Amino acid sequence: MDGIHDLGGMHGFGPIPIESQDYRFKHDWQRRAFGIVQAVAGNTPYVADQHRYKIEQLSATDYLTLDYFEKWITATSALLKDARLVNDQELATGQKEFDVDLVNHPAVSADDLLSAMKIGADYQFPTNSQPQGFAIGTRVRVRSDSPQGHTRVPRYVRGKFGTVLATEGVFQHADSVAAGQGRNPQHCYLVSFSAAELWGSSVEQADDDILLNLAESYLEPM
Amino acid sequence: MDGIHDLGGMHGFGPIPIESQDYRFKHDWQRRAFGIVQAVAGNTPYVADQHRYKIEQLSATDYLTLDYFEKWITATSALLKDARLVNDQELATGQKEFDVDLVNHPAVSADDLLSAMKIGADYQFPTNSQPQGFAIGTRVRVRSDSPQGHTRVPRYVRGKFGTVLATEGVFQHADSVAAGQGRNPQHCYLVSFSAAELWGSSVEQADDDILLNLAESYLEPM
Amino acid sequence: MQDNLSDDHHHDPIEEGAALRVRALEELLIAKGLVKAEAIDAVVEYYEKETGPRNGAQVVARAWCDPDFKAWLLKDGTAAIHSMGFKGYQGEHMRVVENTNDTHNIIVCTLCSCYPWPVLGLPPAWYKGAAYRARVVREPRAVLAEFGLDLPASQKVRVWDSTAEIRFMVLPQRPPNTGNLSQAELADLVTRDSMIGTAVL
Amino acid sequence: MQDNLSDDHHHDPIEEGAALRVRALEELLIAKGLVKAEAIDAVVEYYEKETGPRNGAQVVARAWCDPDFKAWLLKDGTAAIHSMGFKGYQGEHMRVVENTNDTHNIIVCTLCSCYPWPVLGLPPAWYKGAAYRARVVREPRAVLAEFGLDLPASQKVRVWDSTAEIRFMVLPQRPPNTGNLSQAELADLVTRDSMIGTAVL
């Protein structure tokens, strides 16, 4: 989705607020918001790309003005609602209106949550399980595809030419997972773009590089 | 400038508010705002691309939330300030603080303003005054240039391939004019892009076309 | 459509702020001698009452009735339209694009709100809004469907994005069973949206 | 850094709204049995106190002291970092990129806020904000200058945009005149920003 979240290369956002924003949590409610998002991810369940997609669907103004963790909570609330674990009325009041199936959606314990966080999420498949369409060193062009749904190709590389530097292995495909269309595993490449290719004559320094990890289906041969 | 104003192709803005926004002026202050912008353009002076550039420099949130004519007034106020015809204090209070040189900035009369509007602004130069780099039928690529300043290349055609359908003649160059760097006249082309080239496999109908007028310096040979 | 500050006060404090700001600016510029109130009056009246889609409708109706004019209009829109007296700011350079059974045209300005003022007047708010500008270059058929227009896949859509000094206007197809109408009667049938391309006749 | 609703009330009504909303959601989910308050406590404490840039600093210091480890780290960042126990969510797949006299690396996530949690903890707010994400891929040198870092044109900048499951971490250059320091002392020199690439040591 070519939404406001796709900020790479945009002008107009001013200086980096380094000093005023060198914090991870400024308010205790941000800590709680962070914790809630982690604690219900497993039993709802949802994965990061689904959570990201909900945030991407905020209005552009909300995206730019809401606190980061408020966006997280908004996305998590939407995912809980999609899973029919809460309803709008409950979210508005904080008052429980109906019971949920706790056998299939059990609250995670502190120990189990920490264990899960320390293990992480495995989205990888065996490297030889899918064909590798691009050899290292190949010149590729990023496809113009720009689906309405979640995708992990920033606009600023769309249609641009780059070079495959490495394959990272085979992973589930973010677009497919966020759309609820299965895992669609495919190779993920490390692709290098020259700054000159991305920004043309307005480039800051032509021979600087920008590197991205891009899935097989985002690329086409040059 | 790759700012929020460059909306072409973005997702997330919902349905067209056809019924609720089928008006030109909803409030009388919008009429006054429109009139002010026209009435001071000549004696400030400024041209459309300078006015557009001021609007583009609004914060993204202001751009998306302010009324259209409030953006116009904000831009005009900034241009008047740049010309040292008003200052911040005056703009804040509406109270005059200093006199201006009315010999060089005379208020336009109703008749003269209407005459000027009916004549229009001539930004064209003789067609043979500049070399025409691209023949009709030529395949071209839109350059990746994306300057910090005002430009008239939308992001959604950047790096894309199109076909020159016509030359429109020689015009002053918006980027140069808005940057205060002179008129830099050059050919302006009508360039056609297939929807498939712009939107890839997410295209609505592959053989639809999108056509833009693009200046010589925005294009490179394929 | 007229309202005033006290009206604004009742229904929309944001509008009130803008209204106060515009009033302050107008008063300031008048006090400084930079603007004359009657010039503002005149230009507003001109664009509200003397220009507008009735101008474009006359161009369209004449093209339907006069094959030579139509040929000229499609070949040199600027000269043909100016010859009818519809000229001036935002209409200095015109390209008229013809709808046919094979092709449907639609105009937009994705970067701001360029629009052919002398023939269509000032644009409606939706034309200047984010949704129309964002979507019509990507999914013109979905946008047209919201306007009640469902095009067959066999009809190609051409979207004209107004990125330079040239302004576009659509020449809609003449409605069926209008052979007995005068040029003036035909002009009455031509809507603003049919010349933007968000409607057919 | 702790505050509460009444504090919020005094300085920022927007914050108060978010705080009330989060409290309501937490109470709702607890009432429904979907979440345990102690699980929230535990995960917050873990990311605030047990992970963070001290982990990454240990990786860096070891790489400076142990050439074999450094070679492994650059060849297979995932295995080398996991071998030190720094693993888990947002650090499942790691690529470590080395700063040299010829090349300076810097990491970003333009689409959201991807960041290597097990080695660097949670990202600072500026890393997640619009200005950093918008600008660092286009004008990394201007951004670095705002961080107080002026790079020579002779040093190539490589910007790593975290668009998939792999998380990046910068291996900064070892500061001069540190030959006599222990690995633990070296780790104390390594800053978070040096591993993001917005600082050098």
UniProtKB/TrEMBL annotation, chains A, B:
<dbReference type="InterPro" id="IPR049054">
    <property type="entry name" value="CN_hydtase_beta-like_N"/>
</dbReference>
<comment type="function">
    <text>NHase catalyzes the hydration of various nitrile compounds to the corresponding amides.</text>
</comment>
<feature type="domain" description="Nitrile hydratase beta subunit">
    <location>
        <begin position="129"/>
        <end position="221"/>
    </location>
</feature>
<dbReference type="InterPro" id="IPR024690">
    <property type="entry name" value="CN_hydtase_beta_dom_C"/>
</dbReference>
<dbReference type="GO" id="GO:0018822">
    <property type="term" value="F:nitrile hydratase activity"/>
</dbReference>
<feature type="domain" description="Nitrile hydratase beta subunit-like N-terminal">
    <location>
        <begin position="1"/>
        <end position="103"/>
    </location>
</feature>
<protein>
    <recommendedName>
        <fullName>Nitrile hydratase subunit beta</fullName>
        <ecNumber>4.2.1.84</ecNumber>
    </recommendedName>
</protein>
<dbReference type="InterPro" id="IPR042262">
    <property type="entry name" value="CN_hydtase_beta_C"/>
</dbReference>
<dbReference type="Pfam" id="PF02211">
    <property type="entry name" value="NHase_beta_C"/>
</dbReference>
<dbReference type="InterPro" id="IPR003168">
    <property type="entry name" value="Nitrile_hydratase_bsu"/>
</dbReference>
<keyword id="KW-0456">Lyase</keyword>
<dbReference type="GO" id="GO:0046914">
    <property type="term" value="F:transition metal ion binding"/>
</dbReference>
<dbReference type="InterPro" id="IPR008990">
    <property type="entry name" value="Elect_transpt_acc-like_dom_sf"/>
</dbReference>
<comment type="similarity">
    <text>Belongs to the nitrile hydratase subunit beta family.</text>
</comment>
<dbReference type="Pfam" id="PF21006">
    <property type="entry name" value="NHase_beta_N"/>
</dbReference>
UniProtKB/TrEMBL annotation, chains C, D:
<dbReference type="GO" id="GO:0046914">
    <property type="term" value="F:transition metal ion binding"/>
</dbReference>
<feature type="binding site">
    <location>
        <position position="113"/>
    </location>
    <ligand>
        <name>Fe(3+)</name>
    </ligand>
</feature>
<keyword id="KW-0479">Metal-binding</keyword>
<feature type="binding site">
    <location>
        <position position="112"/>
    </location>
    <ligand>
        <name>Fe(3+)</name>
    </ligand>
</feature>
<dbReference type="InterPro" id="IPR023900">
    <property type="entry name" value="CN_Hdrtase_asu/SCN_Hdrlase_gsu"/>
</dbReference>
<feature type="binding site">
    <location>
        <position position="109"/>
    </location>
    <ligand>
        <name>Fe(3+)</name>
    </ligand>
</feature>
<dbReference type="GO" id="GO:0018822">
    <property type="term" value="F:nitrile hydratase activity"/>
</dbReference>
<feature type="domain" description="Nitrile hydratase alpha/Thiocyanate hydrolase gamma">
    <location>
        <begin position="19"/>
        <end position="199"/>
    </location>
</feature>
<keyword id="KW-0456">Lyase</keyword>
<dbReference type="InterPro" id="IPR004232">
    <property type="entry name" value="CN_Hdrtase_a/SCN_Hdrlase_g"/>
</dbReference>
<keyword id="KW-0408">Iron</keyword>
<comment type="similarity">
    <text>Belongs to the nitrile hydratase subunit alpha family.</text>
</comment>
<protein>
    <recommendedName>
        <fullName>nitrile hydratase</fullName>
        <ecNumber>4.2.1.84</ecNumber>
    </recommendedName>
</protein>
<dbReference type="InterPro" id="IPR018141">
    <property type="entry name" value="Nitrile_hydratase_asu"/>
</dbReference>
<dbReference type="Pfam" id="PF02979">
    <property type="entry name" value="NHase_alpha"/>
</dbReference>
<dbReference type="InterPro" id="IPR036648">
    <property type="entry name" value="CN_Hdrase_a/SCN_Hdrase_g_sf"/>
</dbReference>
<feature type="binding site">
    <location>
        <position position="114"/>
    </location>
    <ligand>
        <name>Fe(3+)</name>
    </ligand>
</feature>
